[in-house]
Amino acid sequence: MKLNKRSAVITEGPSRAPARAMLKAMGLTDKEIHQPMVGIANTWIETMPCNFHLRRLSEKVKEGVRKAGATPIEFNTIAISDGITMGTEGMKTSLISREVIADSIELVARGHYFDAIIAISGCDKTIPGTVMALARLDVPSLMFYGGSIYPGRLDGRDLTIQDVFEAVGAYSAGRITEKQFCAIENKACPNAGACGGQFTANTMSIAFSLMGISPIWMNEIPAMDPKKDKACIDTGALIMELLKKDLRPSKIITRKSIENAIVSVCMTGGSTNAVLHLLALAHEMGIKLEIEDFDKISSKTPLLGDLKPGGRYVASDLYHAGGFRIVAQRMKEAGVLHENCMTVTGKTIGQEAASGKEVRGQKVLMPLSAPLKATGGIVILKGNIAPEGCVLKVAGEKRLVHEGPARVFECEEDAFEAVKKRRIKAGDTVIIRYEGPKGGPGMREMLGVTAALVGEGLGETVALLTDGRFSGATHGLMAGHVAPEAADGGPIAAVREGDIIRFDIPKRRIDVLVTAKELKVRMKNWKAPKPRYTSGVMAKYAKLVSSASKGAVTG
After folding, report:
1. Phi/psi of residue 497, nearest 5 degrees
2. Which of 10, 162, 342, 469 is most buried when burial is the number of CB atoms within 10 A of its CB?
């Protein structure tokens, strides 16, 4: 089999002499030019710790590719830090960046005819963005995750960025001193790597490992662990095996492997953002997947991961407990693993599960005989306020029903100001609207608001509902992705201050307690707001983006 058959379009024959001349200007030899070309799609950037170390890792990846007899060609794309932009207008760019990341990787790979691709991801949107691009291109490829940060330490306890966000509310409420506040800020993030709990980055890492598009034993290694370098080098040999076998994403990403990914999210108490990203990936693959499927799968999946934000442990603890393979083992034991799904390692996910070694006495992943909850960490609610559904993470949440008056805000900033000034009271239901994919635009995460509520001690008594998103670090009775969104004429736009909102998790209902007639009258008088952006990428996105219930895709 000719391994460089794609890149040969660029490199072979007399007519390609100009292209070869330009490649030689970068130091490539004739041998390197005629070897298989492996695109290294790197999401390195200096805007966050999550991706800050990826330039170093990419050098190790390229070393492995060269040793395997191929030529690595590195290229870069953008990334936006959710954590750093959180609570600002800049956070609206985060979800939009997922599409730009996928588009840019696709463009470079199509333009330069790479024979195979290794995509290196780090922060939240780079992970699904890279995999969406691999799905479109369908050449032998894999996604390599840069790894989780190790936790900070303060007064004998682990810290993550979640603690800093919650400290904002605690400091505002006078529950901690300025000295304590600064100590948390200074200790929470000790080095490079993605946010440490089972937040969005680590959620998508385990999801794509269990799906099979990432090597299950590579992603789990923390960012600054010495073993990460060897894992990078090993990808060189692995990508050559994929190329020789012509093992492509279309043979790995299937309905069943997506279900494996969903199960892993539900079993470990992962981020609600997984719903958005897996719907988007299924769309790229032409695979039928509905938002209701997440609830169906979650209802059959026990919650076993005692991981932050709802639990006690961080991602590096899961790695040291035995890693992703022991999650696969639990899935197999529970009868919710599609064992025959192929992975990029050349083994089925069932075979990978069999090779896992659980550390005796570990407490990060509970046994099937003692689940944290009988069902998974994600539920989908529907009702007169969310006809297409909304997403609620129940890992760590004890309340099953909440009924309280609506406190209505037209944007995140107004809600945060109310929380900061302590105008939100126990029993309230905070409504934040016009923050959806179209209305934001960009569907901001509400971690600043939710963490401040928790920090003020209201996390167990207040509920929140938004057509925006939540960070994976959010916990409490917080429902997001309300669809249709307010800007698209969704009934969340009709909610008024003081309306009673009812969450009923057992019945999977979310309703505003007004009559259908009253709701209809209110919506008849509703007028769509003017777009917040009228030019540039934000306006373009608002015109193209689909509903959150469809994955907020643009194509």
Report:
1. -55, 130
2. 469
Q: Cβ distance 406 to 500 under 8 Å?
A: yes
Can you say whether the dihedral through the CA atoms of 503, 311, 205, 375 is positive or negative?
negative
pLDDT tens for each residue of 522-552: 999 999 999 999 999 999 999 999 999 999 9
Catalytic residues: 471
| Pairing relationship of beta strands 477-483 and 386-393 according to DSSP bridges | antiparallel
Give the residues across from 373 on adjacent strands: 303
Helix/strand/coil for 547: coil
Report whether pLDDT(211) > 90: yes
CA distance linking residue 321 with residue 268, whole number of Å: 14
**CB contact at 8 A, 487 and 452:** no
First to last CA, the chain: 34
Distance between CA atoms of 93 and 474, rounded to whole angstroms?
Answer: 19
Alpha helices (runs of H) in 173-322, residue ranges in sequence order: 178-187, 200-211, 227-245, 249-252, 255-268, 273-285, 291-299, 315-321
> Is the whole model's pTM more than 0.90, yes or no?
yes
Using alpha carbons only, what angle is made at residue 523 by residues 518 and 526, rounded to the nearest 5 degrees?
Answer: 135
